[in-house]
Amino acid sequence: MEEKIRPPERMDTDRLWLRPVVVGDAETIYETYAHDLEVTRFATWVPHASVVETQRYLQACETGWREGTAFPWALIRKADDRLIGSAELRIDQYKAEIGYLIARPLWGKGYATEAARVLVDWAYAHPDIYRVWATCDAGNLASARVLEKAGLVFEGRIRRWLRRPGYKGVPRDVLFYAKVK
Ligand SMILES: CC(C)(COP(=O)(O)OP(=O)(O)OC[C@H]1O[C@@H](n2cnc3c(N)ncnc32)[C@H](O)[C@@H]1OP(=O)(O)O)[C@@H](O)C(=O)NCCC(=O)NCCS
C-alpha cells in the first residue's frame, strides 16, 4: 500500500509560524474566531455556541493529524506569539486541498495570503502531489483573491454546489481554483 503523505508539523513564513492546533487552544480559538458570525459566514459550520464545541472540533483536528486525513495548523504571529487564525491541508492521494481563516480584526493585512502560499508551495513541491486546489463561496471575494495571490488559477464556477448554514441552507455557487502539474 502507498505511504500516506504527511506535511511537516512546523512551517514558517516571514511573519507567522504554523503548528498543529490542539485541544488546549480551545479558549483562544473560540474567542478569536470560532464564535464569530462574520468569520463563519462562508463556512460549512455554524459559529460555536460555547468553548465545549470548540474543544470537540479540536479533538477532531487532533484525530485528523493522527490518522493523516486532515492537517489543521494554528497560525501564530511571530511578533507577539498570538494565535491569529488557522489553515489546513487535506491530502487525498495526489491532491491537496487548502483552507484558511483569519481573526476578523486582522483581515486585510496579508496574513491569509502568507499562510496559503506556504501550504501551496509545500504541496506543489511534493513529487507525488499533482493538484493543489481550493474552493470558495462565489461571494467570498477576499478568499478568491487570496487563492489567486497564492498562485492558484480559477477553473470554474459550480452552481448551487454547497449548502451553507450562514445562508439558511440555500445551496450556493462555489468557485474552484487549482495549481496543477
Ligand atoms: C478570506 C480571509 C481568509 C482573507 O484573509 P486576509 O488575511 O484578510 O487576506 P489577505 O489580506 O491576505 O488578502 C485579502 C485580499 O482580498 C482583497 N479583498 C478583501 N475584501 C475584498 C472584497 N470585498 N472584494 C474584493 N477583494 C477583496 C484584499 O484587498 C486583498 O487583496 P490585495 O492584496 O490584492 O489588495 C478572511 O477574510 C477570512 O478569514 N474570512 C472568513 C473565513 C473564510 O472565508 N475563509 C476562506 C474560506 S474559502
Task: Tell me what you see in this structure.
A hairpin with a 2-residue loop joins β4 and β5. The chain has an eight-stranded mixed β-sheet, sandwiched between helices. The protein contains four helices and eight strands. The two termini are 24 Å apart. Helices cover 28% and strands 34% of the residues. With 181 residues, it is α+β, with helices and mostly antiparallel strands. It has helices spanning 26-34, 51-67, 111-125, 141-149, and strands at 11-12, 16-20, 71-77, 82-92, 95-102, 131-137, 153-163, 171-180. The protein has a domain at 11-129: Aminopeptidase (3-Layer(aba) Sandwich). The longest helix has 17 residues, at 51-67. The radius of gyration is 16 Å and the shape is globular. Coenzyme A binds at residues 39, 42, 99-102, 107-113, 136, 140-143, 145-146.
Task: Please summarize what this structure is.
This protein is an alpha+beta fold.
Radius of gyration: 16 Å
Classify the secondary structure makeup into a structural class.
Answer: alpha+beta
In order across it, which strands form the biggest sheet?
Answer: 1-2-3-4-5-6-8-7
Oligomer: single chain
Average predicted local confidence, pLDDT: 96
Order of helices and strands: EEHHEEEHEHEE
